[in-house]
């Protein structure tokens, strides 16, 4: 009888422990997403409704909120590789390093731990899948620029699902006999899906990599990020679609872990592009809603954590007159890089025949300047000067991911100033970043946490 009671007690304890475990984990990382990026998106949407306030994003409605500093071992201001390594494994490292400590010891990511325990694993991003934030989840290299080595390790990881903008460097330029990375992935059992429809039609494949069709049409070309949300056209992949496919693909597994990176919040922060940054943050939140719908179906078994690797750009909301005018950004229809390319195309097609009226019409169409947005005499003079600089191919502004001509750059600065949106940097900052959580084990994330704690706390929620 005593043995029976003891056995019953053990079974009850085991059942309670099992019920306490998260079986489905979503780890969202907003690359470059500081608190002001989140608040700007909310206040912008309120201004579009004609009021001062917020239209809350889904993430800010989660019941658990925390904050984290982001410094690396080598720098007070981290880069994405060191921050990604820390968010993946809980171990800090030097800037520039992927998945290893400064002495070369490989870190073990939460994705690898769970994969070794039989979990289904998905890695999703809007940028190349061998980029600095996603790669520490599966790779180990002393330099984030070792793209080919990172890509080989992706193919050898055994993870179930990858999605993003293809490989940054699919060919090994140093060793001509090395296989193309797309071919190498196929050799390692991955089905290559060129777009959303093809992925949805092949849910039964053993392992899958989802990339834009253009990546597979020219397998030697550099992979690229998905278009900015503000630039997206019909047929372009979106982060919402990538998350939808990842869940559909992994939902047959008893347990799964999906990391989702909104990588182009960072890109637009480097470019100090306020409208594009706001659209990227909103788009990231829409992708989060796809995971949240899954959570609603499995609330007792799902954990969703939203974090950020660092803040980018030093976004500041407001200036000395205590006002915001974010709604003016609605008149920007494309990213500054896209507009720069349009202006460059005008110069190439018209040459010396290009007039100020031509480019003024372009600025009106894509940024609302001179039509929806009144331009001051001082700013008109700035734009005309930038027009002359651009004709001479002078005054270009080069940021980490894009070179923008003087005219597009100046127009962007002016529109940002009219929105009363400012920036302190074209790089990363040391600003703290937010954490939002909901679901099984979410209570752990309340308060202030070093970024070394996030991955271990997620892992503990699965025990």
Molecular structure report:
By secondary structure, the protein is α/β, with parallel strands linked by helices. It folds into 2 domains: 23-316 and 426-460, Alkaline Phosphatase, subunit A (3-Layer(aba) Sandwich); 326-419, no CATH class. The chain is built from 16 helices and 16 strands. The protein has helices spanning 2-19, 35-48, 80-89, 110-116, 147-156, 181-187, 196-200, 213-217, 239-250, 264-270, 274-297, 336-350, 356-367, 377-391, 406-418, 454-460; strands at residues 24-30, 64-68, 120-125, 161-163, 190-194, 207-211, 256-262, 302-307, 311-312, 316-317, 397-398, 403-404, 421-422, 428-429, 433-439, 447-448. The protein has a 10-stranded mixed β-sheet, with helices on both faces. Strands 9-14 form a two-stranded antiparallel sheet. Strands 10-13 form a two-stranded antiparallel sheet. A hairpin with a 4-residue loop joins strand 11 (397-398) and strand 12. Helix 14 (377-391) runs antiparallel to helix 15. It is globular. It starts with a helix and ends with a helix. Mean pLDDT is 95; it is low at 1-18.
- What fraction strand? 5-15%
Would you give the CATH topology of the largest domain?
Alkaline Phosphatase, subunit A
- Count the beta strands: 16
Kindly provide the name of the CATH class of the largest domain: Alpha Beta
Radius of gyration over all CA atoms, rounded: 23 Å
Structural class: alpha/beta
Distance between the termini: 31 Å
Question: With helices defined by DSSP (H or I, 4 residues minimum), what is the helix count?
Answer: 16
Number of domains: 2
Percent in helix: 25-40%
| CATH-defined superfamily of the largest domain | Alkaline Phosphatase, subunit A
> Biggest sheet: strands side by side, in what order?
5-6-4-3-7-1-8-15-2-16
Low-confidence stretches: 1-18
Mean pLDDT: 95
Globally, the shape reads globular
CATH architecture of the largest domain: 3-Layer(aba) Sandwich
Largest beta-sheet characterization: 10 strands, mixed
């Amino acid at each position: 009888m005593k043995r029976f009671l003891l056995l019953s007690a053990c079974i009850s304890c085991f059942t309670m422990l099992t019920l306490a475990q998260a079986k489905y984990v979503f780890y969202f990382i907003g690359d470059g997403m500081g608190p002001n990026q989140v608040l700007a998106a909310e206040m912008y949407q309120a201004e579009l409704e004609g009021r001062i306030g917020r239209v809350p994003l889904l993430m800010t409605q989660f019941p658990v909120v925390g904050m984290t500093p982001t410094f690396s071992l080598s720098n007070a201001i981290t880069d994405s590789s060191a921050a990604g390594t820390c968010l993946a494994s809980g171990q800090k490292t030097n800037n520039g390093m992927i998945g290893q400590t400064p002495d070369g010891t490989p870190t073990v990511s939460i994705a690898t731990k769970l994969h070794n325990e039989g979990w289904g694993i998905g890695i999703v991003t809007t940028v190349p899948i061998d980029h600095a934030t996603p790669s520490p989840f599966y790779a180990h290299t002393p330099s984030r620029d070792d793209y080919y080595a990172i890509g080989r390790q992706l193919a050898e990881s055994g993870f179930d699902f990858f999605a993003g903008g293809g490989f940054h460097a699919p060919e090994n330029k140093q060793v001509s006999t090395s296989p193309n990375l797309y071919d190498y992935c196929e050799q390692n059992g991955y089905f290559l899906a060129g777009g959303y429809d093809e992925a949805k039609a092949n849910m039964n494949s053993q392992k899958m990599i989802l990339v834009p069709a253009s990546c597979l049409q020219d397998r030697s070309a550099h992979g690229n990020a998905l278009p900015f949300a503000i630039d997206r056209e019909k047929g372009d992949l979106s982060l919402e679609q990538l998350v939808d496919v990842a869940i559909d693909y992994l939902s047959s597994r008893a347990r799964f872990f999906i990391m989702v990176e909104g990588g182009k919040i960072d890109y637009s922060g480097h470019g100090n592009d306020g409208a594009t940054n706001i659209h990227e943050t909103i788009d990231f939140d829409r992708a989060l809603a796809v995971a949240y719908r899954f959570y609603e179906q499995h609330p007792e078994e799902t954990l969703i954590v939203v974090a950020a690797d660092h803040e980018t750009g030093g976004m500041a909301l407001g200036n000395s007159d205590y006002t915001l005018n974010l709604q003016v950004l609605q008149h920007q229809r494309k990213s500054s890089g896209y507009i720069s390319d349009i202006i460059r195309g005008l110069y190439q097609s018209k040459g010396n025949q290009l007039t100020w009226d031509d480019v003024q019409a372009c600025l009106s169409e894509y940024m609302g300047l001179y039509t929806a947005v009144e331009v001051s005499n001082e700013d008109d003079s700035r734009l005309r000067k930038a027009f002359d600089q651009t004709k001479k191919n002078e005054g270009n502004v080069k940021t980490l991911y894009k070179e923008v001509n003087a005219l597009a750059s100046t127009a962007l600065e002016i529109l940002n100033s009219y929105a009363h949106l400012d920036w302190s940097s074209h790089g990363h900052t040391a600003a703290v970043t937010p954490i939002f959580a909901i679901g099984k084990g979410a209570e752990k994330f309340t308060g202030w946490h070093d970024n070394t704690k996030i991955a271990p706390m997620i892992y503990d929620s699965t025990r």
